[in-house]
Design brief:
alpha+beta, Pyruvate Kinase, Chain: A, domain 1, five-stranded mixed sheet, 20 helices, 568 residues
């Protein structure tokens, strides 16, 4: 136990320093983040209870050793050191208990819609490779290689070091946490990199173990480099060569192979990372910049901007950067019931979803009115809970003061996210189906290999739906809008036809033009909507630009972003 105590001392004091800084400067602690993260993942109370017991036992181990040192040490310096250590263990134990008490009991509703929090089956090939692609093949294998190193040491009757056990258990715990959401591979990568570095650092001491792990890393890449017969023979030679070296027990050649395979795998991972980085970025488009600039020029601190929560930080941050900050209805902060007393994030996303998904304009306006400012009762509750802290905000506004203006954004990215808007807003998730053109057959234009066909009938399109798996064959979609060669928008109603199916097809060239039939413009994409989606406020705002709406005035638009002023 004394050895474990000495080995863990650096980690202990790093944890102490981190919590001291967080507690006094940021009003948060490492344990609060840890248990908050467990709640964030949706892990049950049993897991959090086990974590609490382990952490308290860890504090107890240090408390016992510091107390023992306090009684047994003879020098004043050593006794002061032990006394401070004992106080720090009590401090950490208190912070641990506080964290367990104060964290949310359950994750926020929005978590089920966050892509990086979707469950990952890490024990399937696809799930495991998704982790490998992010962390690196060699990093993952070498971190798990600590188990092989432990087995080798048992065989050789060598002592397994405490740091090896710690690194292996940490890597395993973080790896399992990825099953609760792919975003946790960031934490796993840190631990796995340290563990892999430890293994590489011992390549001269345990070359056989390292070389075997390198061989395994090559075998995993087999499907990538063996597509022809010569490649298979070449690959087999490369894999067999390390076994020959192990048989001959040539130390220099063994070390050279380890470093050679290590260099190859490192360069291979870097190459993949560069390609992934160049494939797509997180930057926003020029259309969004134009919309943001318009908002900045037409807003102030008493303006609130409403849209789905995803771009909330971009909206608030950009306006603050331009020194003309405005308010947003919601962002990615995901504030819980204890942080957002008036309307927490669960309420906000349901309200936003309802506004976009409902067909009732009056209902939407009544919801949005709630965000123009708190009631007198809500304001008193804010002051009673937070005191003068409510005035300590970057925008320097009085939260109890009502807003003067509200803008609502309907943007193209919400087409793909509409399922979650409708799910949170109505309880039923519905999708827009956006299909690209894939070819032609006779006088028909095929979209997504014929799921939807546009039959060219002189000067009109007849939309046909085919989903054989659902028993839908050659059904005519009841309504369609398209554009003729003169630029006129035409809407046709086929609901009276005996084989029609309820729905609406948006076949206007808003998302690209694939060509022309001579009489009609051929869109690159068509979008199928169920009747519920067609009648939603989002459809009326984005696709019809607010036509027919009384309380939403279109004030700025581009192909990607439509901004409406809300008229109460």
């Amino acid at each position: 136990m004394q050895e474990w105590f000495e080995v863990s001392k650096p980690i202990f004091f790093v944890v102490v320093a981190t919590n001291l800084l967080g507690y006094f400067f940021f009003h948060s602690t490492l344990f609060l983040s840890f248990f908050g993260g467990l709640a964030f993942t949706g892990l049950g109370f049993l897991v959090r209870g086990i974590a609490l017991v382990v952490l308290l036992a860890w504090c107890g181990l240090f408390a016992y050793n510091f107390f023992y040192s306090l009684r047994s040490e003879e020098t004043t310096k050593a006794r002061v050191y032990a006394g401070l250590g004992l106080l720090f263990t009590v401090f950490l134990a208190i912070l641990t208990i506080q964290a367990v008490i104060s964290v949310p009991e359950a994750p926020l509703l929005v978590n089920i819609s966050v892509a990086e929090l979707q469950p990952v089956n890490i024990f399937s090939r696809e799930g495991f490779m998704s982790v490998v692609n992010r962390a690196g093949l060699l990093t993952v294998l070498l971190s798990f290689g600590l188990l092989a190193l432990a087995a080798y040491k048992i065989w050789k009757k060598e002592k397994i070091l405490p740091e090896e056990i710690f690194l292996f258990l940490s890597a395993i715990f973080m790896f399992l946490l990825i099953s609760r959401g792919v975003r946790f591979d960031l934490q796993f990568t840190v631990v796995a990199s340290i563990a892999a570095g430890y293994m590489i650092g011992n390549y001269k001491k345990y070359p056989e173990v390292l070389l075997l792990l390198m061989i395994v890393s090559l075998l995993v890449t087999y499907p990538i480099f063996t597509r022809t017969i010569p490649e298979i023979f070449y690959f087999a030679f490369i894999v067999l060569l390390p076994f020959l070296v192990l048989y001959k027990k040539e130390e220099k050649l063994t070390n050279a192979l380890i470093l050679g395979i290590f260099a190859f795998q490192t360069l291979f991972f870097i190459s993949n990372s560069v390609q992934m980085g160049q494939a797509g970025g997180m930057e926003i488009s020029k259309n969004w910049y134009d919309a943001l600039d318009w908002l900045v020029n037409n807003s102030d601190s008493q303006t609130i901007v409403v849209t789905w929560w995803d771009p909330g930080h971009i909206l608030a941050g950009y306006s603050y950067y331009k020194q003309k900050p405005f308010m947003v209805m919601a962002d990615g902060a995901h504030c819980g019931p204890t942080d957002c007393l008036v309307y927490d994030h669960n309420i906000r996303i349901q309200d936003m979803g309802r506004v976009f998904a409902t067909s009732n304009e009056t209902e939407a306006i009544n919801i949005l009115k709630n965000y123009m400012g708190p009631t007198q009762e809500q304001c008193e509750n804010l002051k009673a809970t937070f005191g003068n802290k409510i005035y300590d905000n970057p925008v320097k506004v009085d939260p109890c003061k009502p807003m003067k203006k509200m803008y609502l954004i309907a943007s193209a990215d919400l087409i793909g996210k509409y399922y979650w808007l409708s799910y949170f807003g109505t309880g039923t998730g519905r999708n827009y189906f956006q299909l690209p053109i894939t070819g032609t057959r006779g006088n028909s234009l095929l979209y997504s290999e014929g799921i939807i066909s546009l039959v060219v009938n002189d000067t009109s399109f007849i939309p046909v739906l085919n989903i054989p798996e659902q028993g839908i064959r050659n059904r005519i979609i009841s309504r369609i809008s398209y554009m003729d060669a003169r630029g006129n928008i035409v809407t046709k109603d086929y609901s009276s036809m005996p084989n029609s199916i309820p729905g609406f097809l948006w076949a206007l060239p808003d998302f690209g033009i694939a060509g022309s039939t001579g009489q009609l413009i051929v869109p690159y994409y068509v979008i199928f909507m169920s009747p519920e989606i067609e009648n939603s406020l989002f459809t009326k705002m984005f696709f019809y630009k607010g036509q027919g709406l009384q309380h939403f005035k279109l004030v700025h638009q581009n192909p990607e972003v439509k901004i409406f002023e809300v008229i109460f």
